[in-house]
Design brief:
Layout: H1 8-14, H2 23-27, E1 38-43, E2 46-47, E3 51-52, H3 58-70, E4 73-78, H4 85-88, E5 97-102, E6 109-110, E7 115-124, E8 144-148, H5 157-164, E9 171-175, H6 188-195, E10 200-204, H7 205-212, E11 219-223, E12 236-243, H8 248-260, H9 262-271
Parallel strand pairs: 1-4, 1-5, 8-9, 8-10
Antiparallel strand pairs: 2-3, 5-12, 6-12, 7-10, 7-11, 7-12
Helix pairs in contact: 3-9
C-alpha cells in the first residue's frame, strides 16, 4: 500500500494507490459539480487497466454497473492516486466511492469483496520457464523484473520476498507509478518481459493480465504459489470498494448492488484479463 495504508504491498500494485505526490499531481484534480442524485467516484485519470479520463478501465466499467443498479448518475473526481489520495478525495467530501481497495482497508469503510487476485509470474511462453514458486532455483540465475516504490519498507511483496532469499543482483526494478506523463504508466514491466529485457517478472495480477493480452508475443501467467510468503507477506488479496466511514446507507446500498451485479462484474474482469484467485471469495459474499 501507499505509506498511509495498512497493507503497503497491495495498494501500490492493485489500484495505483501510490506514494510520493507532487504539486503537479494536485493540479490534475478535476472536480465535477455536486448533484445529490449522482454517485461521485474518486478515481485516477491515468491508471490503466483500472481507470482513466476516458473511463476505459475496468473500475470505470464496474462503477457504471453500480451506478445504474442504484439508479444514480455517475460523476468523477479525478486525482492521481498517491499519498493523501483518500484524505483529499473521500474524506474531503469531493466524492463518495473508491472502487478498488483491499478488503481490510482501514482508512475508509470497505464493502464486501468483489474479486480476489494475486501476484503472478510473467514470462514468455516460448521460454517454457513454468515458474510458480519464489523458491524455484531458476530465480537465482534469471533476470527478474519487479515493481518497486523506492521505499525500503514500502515496496510490493516481491521485492521483500526476493531480498529475504538474497536474490538481489539479478533483479531490475520498475517504478509502480511509471512515467505518469504518458498513457499506461504501469505497463513497462510486462513489456520488458515481452522484449526479453528480463526473463520473468512478478506483477500484480490485474496489471499483468491486461497488458499480457496486448503483448506482441504470447506470455505465460502463473500465480505466485503459495499465495503467502510466511505469516506476514501475502501475495493474494480480496478487493472491495470503500465509502466514508459514516456513510452507512451508501455502504449498504453498494453491498447489495455488488451482490446483484456479481455476474456482470465477473464478465468485466474476464474481459480485462484479470486473473482471479482459485481460492477467491464468491463475488458479493460476506
Amino acid at each position: 500500500m501507499s505509506s498511509g495504508f495498512k497493507a503497503i504491498a497491495i495498494s501500490i500494485a492493485l489500484a495505483g494507490l501510490k506514494p510520493c505526490a507532487t504539486n503537479a499531481d494536485a493540479a490534475l484534480a478535476v472536480a465535477q459539480p455536486f448533484r445529490a442524485a449522482a454517485l461521485r467516484v474518486c478515481s485516477d485519470p491515468n491508471n490503466m487497466p483500472f481507470s482513466n479520463l476516458r473511463r476505459e478501465g475496468f473500475e470505470n466499467r464496474i462503477a457504471g454497473l453500480i451506478s445504474r443498479e442504484l439508479g444514480r448518475t455517475l460523476e468523477y473526481f479525478w486525482l492521481p492516486q498517491r499519498r493523501g489520495f483518500i484524505r483529499n478525495t473521500l474524506r474531503a467530501n469531493r466524492c463518495d466511492l473508491v472502487v478498488g481497495v483491499p478488503a481490510q482497508f482501514e482508512m475508509a469503510r470497505p464493502t464486501r469483496p468483489y474479486y480476489r487476485s494475486s501476484y503472478v509470474f510473467v514470462s514468455r511462453r516460448d521460454r517454457e520457464l513454468n515458474i510458480e514458486s519464489l523458491d524455484d532455483p531458476l530465480l537465482h540465475k534469471l533476470k527478474i523484473g519487479i515493481q518497486i516504490t523506492g521505499e525500503d519498507y514500502g515496496n510490493p511483496p516481491a521485492a521483500q520476498a526476493l531480498a529475504s532469499r538474497r536474490i538481489v543482483a539479478n533483479v531490475r526494478g520498475f517504478m509502480v507509478y511509471g512515467d505518469y506523463s504518458k498513457p499506461d504508466p504501469q505497463r513497462a514491466v510486462v513489456d520488458a518481459v515481452a522484449r526479453g529485457d528480463v526473463d520473468v517478472a512478478i506483477v500484480w495480477g490485474p496489471i499483468a493480465g491486461y497488458y499480457a493480452k496486448q503483448a506482441r508475443v504470447p506470455l505465460s501467467l502463473r500465480p505466485v504459489t503459495p499465495d503467502r510468503d510466511g505469516p506476514l507477506l501475502p501475495f493474494a488479496f480480496d478487493i472491495a470498494m470503500a465509502v466514508r466511514r459514516d456513510d452507512g446507507a451508501l455502504h449498504d446500498a453498494i453491498d447489495r448492488a455488488i451482490a446483484r451485479r456479481a455476474a456482470d462484474i465477473r464478465r468485466v474482469l474476464d474481459q480485462y484479463g484479470v486473473p482471479l484467485s482459485v481460492t477467491s471469495v464468491r463475488v458479493g459474499a460476506r
